[in-house]
Design a protein that fits this description.
14% strand; globular; alpha+beta; 8 helices; four-stranded antiparallel β-sheet; two-stranded antiparallel sheet; 187 residues; 44% helix
Length: 187
């Protein structure tokens, strides 16, 4: 990933950047929010830190917006359990008690790789701790793959500036426990 190319192109799209995170700042964010940045996201954030609206400011730790962003996927799932018909048959019969249904959903999400917010409701999983994890767009239980990896996501999010067709996915897309399964359920 040509980090300088992506930074320059995103600046043309109106994204504002500050100097990149230091190693200590990246580690502080990882400790505070209990995850590990995948290597490609870590490199991107250490090269130049996006600070425009919708981008989490990983330098500002603690930051009240980051826990809200990190809880967004679970909160959306709980909303759909309560108000819509979301309940995967693989989880067995839906409990009559909403508290029990929420507890089961929370346990499933807790077992899954943590999702790290990138921008708005776009997330990258923290596992495996390798380059090339897909990026998911998550709105309640409407979950789709928005990029085969970080660079592909940025190209899909800002296609006009990267001069690429939107939703031009690189192949293959890595399967991520739980989250890819939910994408498949939406297909």
């Amino acid at each position: 990933m040509d980090l300088e190319y992506y930074r320059r192109t995103l600046e043309q799209a109106g994204v504002k950047f500050e100097r990149g995170l230091s190693e200590a700042e990246a580690q502080r964010a990882e400790r505070k929010y209990e995850f590990k940045f995948p290597p490609d996201l870590r490199a991107f954030l250490m090269h130049a830190l996006p600070v425009s609206s919708g981008w989490p400011n990983w330098r500002d730790v603690p930051n009240r917006d980051i826990p809200r962003m990190m809880n967004w996927p679970l909160e959306g799932m709980l909303f759909d359990i309560k108000f819509n018909t979301f309940w995967p048959e693989e989880w067995g019969d839906k409990p009559n008690n909403l508290r029990a249904a929420f507890a089961l959903a929370k346990s499933k999400v807790a077992e899954a790789p943590k999702l790290i917010p990138i921008h708005g409701h776009r997330y990258i999983p923290d596992a495996p701790e390798e380059i090339g994890n897909p990026v998911f767009s998550i709105y309640q239980t409407d979950i789709i793959q928005y990029g085969a990896d970080l660079s592909n996501y940025l190209e899909n999010e800002f296609p006009f500036y990267f001069k690429t067709p939107q939703f031009n996915y690189k192949e293959p897309i890595r399967h991520i426990a739980f989250w890819s399964w939910l994408v498949e359920k939406n297909s």
